[in-house]
Specification:
22% helix, globular, 6 strands, 181 residues, 4 helices, alpha/beta
């Protein structure tokens, strides 16, 4: 029997041959002026016992056909106890601000990190460094020049940006290996 047009026919579930840890839900990219595409919820680390760590990426559509671009990493504020990658103080539409910056020739990453009620310090700086490490490892995929990195943050995010800058090579603050999904 035919289903009404507002219903979708169920499909037979497929059984995997091994444990599936990837998110099968389709991601939806957002489009902004100047040819900017935002990829939401890009996972950069996953530690056992914690939520997956994610960022939003603001990229140029034409990244495969042009030279690599410097990248800016936004680290949100909130005193370490609140906030997320899509908000910043007085701006009504923070993603549009980040997309505008990308439209001026940058790749922009807006990062979430574990808040202090989720994990004790130094987890937050480890998360920022994990995001940096991830983006450098995927530089060619995202059209990034890994040698031109700008860290930027508000309040607690500014503190984390400064810590990341002055603790390069400090093994005690290196991120743990991601356990992956």
């Amino acid at each position: 029997a035919a289903l009404p047009p507002d219903q979708v026919a169920p499909t037979d579930p497929q059984v995997a041959t091994k444990v599936v840890r990837d998110d099968a839900f389709p991601g939806v990219d957002a489009r902004f002026p100047r040819g900017i595409v935002a990829q939401p919820h890009v996972e950069f680390a996953n530690y056992v016992g914690y939520r997956p760590l994610q960022m939003d990426l603001y990229l140029h559509q034409d990244r495969a056909s042009v030279a690599t671009r410097p990248w800016v990493m936004w680290i949100h504020g909130g005193g370490g106890s609140r906030g997320d990658a899509r908000q910043s103080g007085a701006f009504a539409d923070w993603p549009a601000v980040l997309a505008s910056l990308a439209g001026h020739g940058y790749v922009v990453a807006s990062v979430d990190y574990r808040l202090n009620r989720e994990a004790r310090f130094p987890a937050q700086i480890e998360d920022v460094k994990a995001a940096i490490r991830f983006l450098r490892s995927k530089a060619s995929d995202f059209g990034i020049d890994p040698s031109r990195v700008y860290l930027w943050g508000g309040s607690a995010g500014g503190h984390l940006a400064a810590l990341a800058a002055v603790t390069c090579g400090v093994a005690a603050l290196d991120p743990p290996a991601s356990s992956g999904r």
